[in-house]
Description:
This protein is of the alpha+beta class. It has twelve helices and twelve strands. The protein is globular.
Amino acid sequence: MMVAGTVRSPEAGNPRAPVRPDLLRAYERYRTRSPEAAAMACAPFLSAHRLSVGRDRTGFQARGRFADAGAAAVGDLSYGSEVTIDRAAHHRYLAIGIPVAGHLVTTHRGRRQVVSAGRSMALIGPGDQLRLAWSPDCELLTLRIDTEALRSTVRTLAPQAGNRPLRFTTPVVPFDTGIPIYGAARLLADVFERYHASGRIPHRIVDRLSDQMVSTVLLSLDHTYSDELTRAAQPCRPASVTVAVDLVTAETSAIHSVTDLARRAAVSVRALELGFRKTLNVTPQTFLRQTRMAKAHRDLVAADPDDGTTVTDVALRWGFAHTGRFAARYRETYGVMPSMTLRRAKGTE
């Protein structure tokens, strides 16, 4: 049941509310009018929990859509009725709930707070009990981030950090603070949706998006390691930059993330960024993108007319998951669309 007097249609007239998307349509795992079946079907994503339906059950229709990227998973949940979810403390992952419609009330250590579309998002940290009371119109974009992946990324981003438990400061985050998380979650969901039909999304792209999701969460939210992650770092030595440059130059497809490069160079991500700026006057991410764009151009120019190569094949090989953006950046760099370069290579202009 919702808490009387707590909620006053907070999403109504809110100009910051995200446009309600139809997310992960190809990843629908269940649609049912049975609360018991819904709780059982959702358990692999949210873990075992108790689902209680309010007095009016006429509109109840649970729907769950999930896509798993390894360290990160994204889901879209709705119930069509007033429900409450109770779950015991869980240590394997961090959960983030972002309403794209409606609102819910989260109870954390006895304190109730409203979480509504365009205004806030709910955070259920490792070791926290979960209690969420949903409005009938609530639709929740849900993220699940593996705890070990969070810890591993902290060690990579800040090697000087200790081994304290990872705790997040607040159970409710303003939407403005969490916009980077919402954007990364939408990108993850959109990439899964876009490439589902063809089944051609390479695992390395999913892995990179998952890494991006983990890093975005750690850098956007306050937690016990925030100070270590934001503390001023010294640029790494030129030799470490050379290690990273050599790894990128030797790639035959998009393999390394900036986090991988920092790990291989035995420095923090921040130190590597500062080292790249000092030595090459670019960020590691920009260097990756420029180098891979040049290699994509090389592959398009050298394409065999008879091997069936497409622009999408080349873009995905070099880590450009969004082919439209790849085409725009390619045109900015080379003055023509990638399809034109491919046609010239095949002698069909």
